[in-house]
């Protein structure tokens, strides 16, 4: 068996809230293999987003370990964590998180430029074409619809060819049809690039696309399952039909 | 990261924020304008003096002394064949107009003048503007004079009238409109009168012991200019430097320029203060800007941009803005520089202004960008604290900041401020004092503002009837960082302006007030010993009281304890601090050079000696005993003077009294209370030693108010060689000079106030979103727009009131220190500046605050409440 791309060892995160201490994550153990698609399901407040934040070094655990490609990251400096994200991790967020003062193309360009890769503009245009926004590159985020913004965010997430993609409710702010379109693009791009994907959602239909489903409740892994192996097309149909 | 990417990122980051930076630019440009105006004016004057140096000297070389050039000095032998030479003598005397036709038995009006006697061509360079337009040598005959136009007006005379100088009649042959070597910024004792050499001989003033300054103007033949320094050196080698001062036009008026430089250092610091106050506004703008960029910063961090890459991105941003603000400031400063001479024609000689001063502009640019970068460091450290987890959770707590980062920021800010202050002050020491003083003042102001806020918080606000007032008080109780910096900034500005006005008012009041009851109101100089009984009788007859008179013997210090003064002067030049432990602290302010010049001057100048049996009552012996050694000729020396020259009890001073050497033993040191305006001397000699030496008498008298002019008229009619120096007139001239500098400081202090107002407007505008919601809410609750505006006005008025009160309080404190410690004068409470400061503070803040909240006031309730949901 190959070494896990992401490994969480007894990961705990507590937050002070007023004069109490909230336990957001409570001793989570999880390993994600290279190329695997893991969906994390759970009601709001179950610790899904915190789990993602800890995987990306955006937040620091109270105890436990996060290993990326076998190396622990919880002790790294902010600078080293930034470099790790730059080279290894792409993001997609529920609220898109595009930079409002940059055009769509510039948003996609940014990770490529940060890496100093050659021909960044070609790469950006390729990706914008792949998400179907070849002619919208010069628009600012405020001039794009929600679905278009999320497609730009997808292009940005894949731009630097990161081995890991972390997605936080990527369809949560979109209507059904738009959400399906975005999800389709996401899974297509992932398959082409062989990216490891951890996707957080509260929508079981979205989770059904994953190789593995993790159910989170009150900061603990409640259960783990392999969803029925279905053609992704069929799964998307179900996702579209389900409410919410 | 590649530099090109960095630069692209820098430009992209500035997008969409541009409109927000009006206040950043405004705050910064006000200070830069002040700095550029001061630096530009001063270097412009300096350049003007350099360019006009020949005209200002009216020659290539000038030799000054209190005696003529040695008669055996052969310029030809010094290789100076072919030079042109003009001898000039200058003295101060009182001239008299003929008796008025209506009162033929009363003497005519008299006036103190500066007499100038020219023998030879004058001027060699520059233009002497005369009316009628004829050469001076043609107008001047043995019986004619050419006088300043202002004097004709003052005495009611016209060209062709007669004037008595030294008792002799002179026909006025013309008037002087402008003199090349008389600079309008220097202080003079009276208007100019030109006489021919033969005419001056007729007055007999030289023979009767008037003090005369001798100046020889030298014009080199064409082609010898490159050899100017060599020729100057050669002259110096044959003329003893303790007696003769040889200056060339290339040195360009060193003492005038040194005075200007001193004024520039002072004004430069005041200007810098307004730049620092602007810096507070810059910090404020940056803080408000970053508050809106937190999400973007979190995204950048999330995408893998390191904090150490993001920080320079934003620092670069402020540097760019600083550049923009500085450019605006430079343009404004240059405009001020161009406008000033026409605004204050008395203050600045327009003829010397050269407005294009690249170095001043560079200084403005450097200081402007420096302040922008330095003052934005503390708020920019927020960039490091932005948690990347914010992309997932808005309320993610900020990252901890390293203690070193905070320390480094504080050190960089302090160091930077110190360096900038030192650049402006031309001295590390003065720069450090200034930095400390500003930090202290800002700290005190902030502390006072916090205290006021705490006190307001405790007020029972429910008891206040007026809704507007209650709203204002609650705003003051929770002022927020923005309002706090506005209070500190405005307060600093008010402090400078109030302190300066107070000091100036006090000085003016002190000088124009009745001098102490028994203090003299006039000094009479150049009285011949034989004339004294007659003069004294006349004075008593005219009601003069407190008449004091002493003999004066002019002498030159030749040696101290066997070391010649030339030798001492040399060691002084090489090692100014050596063996002078008690040197006046004042000298240290201006660096070693000022102290050195003062000490050297005391060493080589013409000394006035008197001889007395008993010391005046304002003298006090602090060491030794008066006239205690029967075997030696003794001298009593003023303590500070002795310390300056390294003279001790038991030292032997050798004086040269018009060619005769006299040795005197120092047997006592004493202090003098100079404030009594009595006749006092640094050097008092034992009676019997100098009785036969050539001498004159000096008298101090007290005249009934209003009789000074009449007594002067009478005196000059009978004793034309006696010169009356009216203390009040001289003091008034000093006040005028002080006034000019004070005007400059208040003008620049105004910039500081302006910067403070800009900060307040910026703070108000930055909070305009919150204000909009406030307005919407108040309107929803049924308040009219006028009512909301009134509530806001009260809030700003309270901020202005607190800032002005605290600043003015600080100004009173500073003025009290300067007046009682610096000038050793009595403190008198003047309430008006305080009231004026409060009024101005309130009016300015209300206007600026309302202007900045116009947009918020326009908000309709629905717009705001909709976006809120």
What report would you give on this structure?
The complex is a heterodimer of chains A (244) and B (869). Chain A has one domain: Rossmann fold (3-Layer(aba) Sandwich). Helix content of chain A is 36%, strand content 27%. Chain A contains 8 helices and 10 strands. Chain A has helices at 48-55, 78-88, 104-115, 120-130, 146-159, 176-193, 204-207, 232-241; strands at 6-17, 20-32, 37-41, 63-68, 71-72, 89-92, 164-168, 196-201, 212-217, 220-225. In chain A, strands 6-7-8-3-9-10 form a 6-stranded mixed β-sheet. In chain A, strands 2-1-4-5 form a 4-stranded antiparallel β-sheet. In chain A, β7, α6 (176-193) and β8 (196-201) form a beta-alpha-beta unit. In chain A, α3 (104-115) packs parallel to α5, α4 crosses α5 (146-159) and α5 runs parallel beside α6 (176-193). The radius of gyration of chain A is 18 Å and the shape is globular. By secondary structure, chain B is of the alpha+beta class. Chain B has 4 domains: 1-53 and 252-426, no CATH class; 84-219, no CATH class; 429-514 and 726-869; 522-704, no CATH class. In chain B, strands 2-3-8-5-7-6 form a 6-stranded mixed beta barrel. In chain B, strands 12-14-19-16-18-17 form a 6-stranded mixed beta barrel, surrounded by 4 helices. In chain B, a hairpin with a 2-residue loop joins β6 (162-165) and β7. The model of chain B is unreliable at 577-595 (pLDDT under 50). The A-B interface holds A 49-50, 52-53, 56, 58-59, 78-79, 81-87, 89, 91, 93, 97-102, 106, 110-111, 113-114, 116, 156, 160, 168 and B 1-2, 5, 8-9, 12-13, 15-17, 295-296, 299-309, 384, 387-389, 391-393, 396, 399.
């Amino acid at each position: 068996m190959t070494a896990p791309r992401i490994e969480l060892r007894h990961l705990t995160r507590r937050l002070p809230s007023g004069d109490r201490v909230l336990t957001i994550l409570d001793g989570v153990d999880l390993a994600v293999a290279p190329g695997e698609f893991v969906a994390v399901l759970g009601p709001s407040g179950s610790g899904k987003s915190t789990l993602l934040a800890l995987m990306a070094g955006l937040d620091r655990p109270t105890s436990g370990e996060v290993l990326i490609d076998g190396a622990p990251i919880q002790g790294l400096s902010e600078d080293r964590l930034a470099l790790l994200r730059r080279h290894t991790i792409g993001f997609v967020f529920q609220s898109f998180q595009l930079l409002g003062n940059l055009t769509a193309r510039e948003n996609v360009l940014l990770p490529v430029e940060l890496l100093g890769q050659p021909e960044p503009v070609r790469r950006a245009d390729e990706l914008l074409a792949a998400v179907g926004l070849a002619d919208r590159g010069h628009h600012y985020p405020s001039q794009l619809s929600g679905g278009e913004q999320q497609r730009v965010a997808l292009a940005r997430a894949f731009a630097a060819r990161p081995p890991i993609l972390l997605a936080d409710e990527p369809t949560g702010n979109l209507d059904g049809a738009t959400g399906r379109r975005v999800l389709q693009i996401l899974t297509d791009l992932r398959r082409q690039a062989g990216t490891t994907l951890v996707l957080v959602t509260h929508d079981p239909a979205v989770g059904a696309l994953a190789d593995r489903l993790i159910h989170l409740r009150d900061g603990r892994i409640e259960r783990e399952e392999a969803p029925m192996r279905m053609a992704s097309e069929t799964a998307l149909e179900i996702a579209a039909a389900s409410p919410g | 990261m590649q530099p090109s990417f960095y630069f692209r990122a820098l430009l992209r980051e500035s997008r969409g924020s541009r409109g927000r930076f009006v206040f950043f630019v405004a705050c910064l440009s006000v200070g830069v304008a002040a700095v550029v105006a001061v630096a530009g004016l001063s270097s412009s004057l300096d350049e003007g003096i350099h360019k006009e140096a020949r005209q200002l000297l009216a020659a290539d070389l000038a030799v000054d002394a209190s005696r003529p050039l040695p008669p055996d000095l052969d310029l030809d032998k010094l290789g100076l064949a072919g030079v042109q030479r003009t001898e000039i003598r200058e003295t101060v005397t009182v001239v008299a107009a003929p008796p008025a036709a209506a009162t033929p038995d009363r003497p005519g009006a008299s006036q103190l003048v500066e007499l100038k006697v020219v023998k030879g061509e004058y001027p060699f360079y520059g233009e002497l503007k005369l009316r009628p337009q004829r050469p001076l040598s043609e107008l001047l005959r043995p019986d004619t004079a050419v006088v300043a136009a202002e004097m004709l007006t003052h005495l009611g005379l016209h060209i062709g009238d007669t004037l008595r100088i030294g008792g002799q009649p002179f026909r006025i042959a013309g008037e002087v409109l402008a003199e090349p070597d008389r600079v309008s910024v220097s202080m003079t004792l009276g208007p100019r009168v030109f006489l021919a050499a033969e005419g001056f001989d007729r007055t007999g003033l030289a023979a009767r012991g008037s003090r005369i300054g001798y100046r020889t103007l030298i014009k080199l033949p064409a082609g010898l200019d490159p050899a100017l320094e060599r020729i100057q050196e050669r002259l110096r080698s044959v003329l003893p430097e303790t007696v003769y001062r040889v200056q060339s036009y290339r040195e360009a008026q060193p003492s005038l320029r040194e005075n200007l430089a001193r004024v520039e250092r002072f004004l430069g610091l005041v200007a810098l203060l307004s730049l620092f106050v602007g810096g507070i506004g810059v910090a404020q703008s940056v803080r408000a800007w970053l508050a809106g960029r937190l999400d973007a910063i979190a995204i950048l961090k999330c995408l893998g941009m390191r904090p150490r890459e993001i920080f320079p991105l934003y620092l670069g941003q402020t540097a760019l803005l600083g550049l923009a603000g500085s450019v605006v400031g430079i343009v404004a400063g240059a405009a001020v520089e161009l406008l000033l001479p026409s605004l204050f024609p008395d203050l600045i000689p327009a003829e010397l202004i050269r407005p294009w001063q690249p170095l001043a502009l560079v200084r403005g640019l450097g200081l402007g960008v420096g302040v922008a970068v330095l003052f934005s460091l503390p708020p920019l450290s927020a960039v490091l604290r932005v948690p990347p987890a914010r992309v997932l959770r808005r309320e993610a707590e900020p990252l901890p900041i390293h203690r070193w980062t905070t320390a480094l920021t504080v050190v960089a800010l302090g160091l930077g401020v110190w360096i900038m202050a030192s650049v402006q002050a031309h001295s590390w020491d003065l720069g450090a004092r200034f930095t400390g003083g500003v930090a202290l003042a800002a700290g005190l102001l902030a502390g006072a503002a916090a205290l006021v806020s705490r006190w307001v918080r405790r007020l029972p606000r429910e008891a206040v009837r007026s809704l507007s007032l209650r709203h204002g008080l609650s705003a003051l109780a929770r002022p927020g960082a923005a309002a706090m910096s506005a209070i500190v900034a405005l307060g600093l500005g008010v402090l400078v302006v109030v302190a300066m006005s107070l000091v100036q008012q006090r000085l003016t009041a002190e000088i124009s007030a009745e001098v102490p009851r028994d203090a003299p109101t006039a000094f009479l100089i150049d009285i011949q010993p034989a004339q004294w009984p007659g003069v004294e009788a006349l004075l008593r007859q005219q009601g003069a009281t407190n008449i004091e008179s002493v003999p004066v013997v002019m002498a030159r210090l030749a040696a101290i304890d066997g070391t010649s003064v030339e030798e001492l002067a040399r060691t002084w030049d090489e090692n100014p601090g050596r063996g002078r432990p008690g040197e006046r602290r004042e000298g240290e302010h201006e660096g070693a050079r000022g102290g050195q010049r003062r000490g050297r001057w005391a060493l080589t100048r013409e000394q006035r000696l008197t001889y007395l049996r008993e010391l005046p009552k304002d003298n006090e012996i602090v060491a030794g005993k008066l006239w205690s050694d029967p075997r030696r000729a003794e001298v009593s020396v003023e303590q500070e003077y002795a310390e300056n020259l390294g003279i001790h009890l038991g030292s032997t001073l050798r004086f040269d009294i018009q060619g005769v050497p006299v040795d005197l033993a120092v047997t006592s040191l004493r202090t003098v209370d100079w404030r009594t305006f009595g006749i006092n001397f640094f050097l008092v000699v034992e009676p019997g030693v100098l009785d036969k030496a050539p001498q004159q008498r000096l008298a101090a008298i007290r005249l009934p108010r209003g009789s000074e002019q009449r007594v002067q008229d009478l005196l000059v009619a009978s004793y034309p060689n006696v010169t009356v120096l009216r203390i009040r007139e001289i003091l008034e001239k000093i006040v005028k000079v002080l006034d000019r500098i004070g005007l400059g400081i208040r003008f620049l202090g105004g910039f500081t106030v302006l910067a403070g107002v800009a900060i307040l407007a910026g703070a108000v505008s930055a909070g305009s979103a919150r204000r909009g919601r406030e307005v919407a809410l108040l309107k929803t609750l049924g308040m009219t727009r006028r009512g909301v505006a009134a509530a806001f006005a009260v809030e700003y008025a309270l901020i202005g009131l607190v800032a002005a009160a605290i600043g003015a309080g600080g100004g009173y404190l500073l003025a009290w220190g300067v007046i009682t410690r610096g000038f050793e004068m009595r403190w008198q409470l003047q309430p008006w500046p305080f009231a004026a400061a409060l009024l101005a503070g309130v009016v300015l803040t209300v206007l600026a605050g309302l202007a900045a909240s116009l947009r918020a006031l326009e908000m309709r309730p629905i717009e705001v409440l909709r976006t809120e949901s």
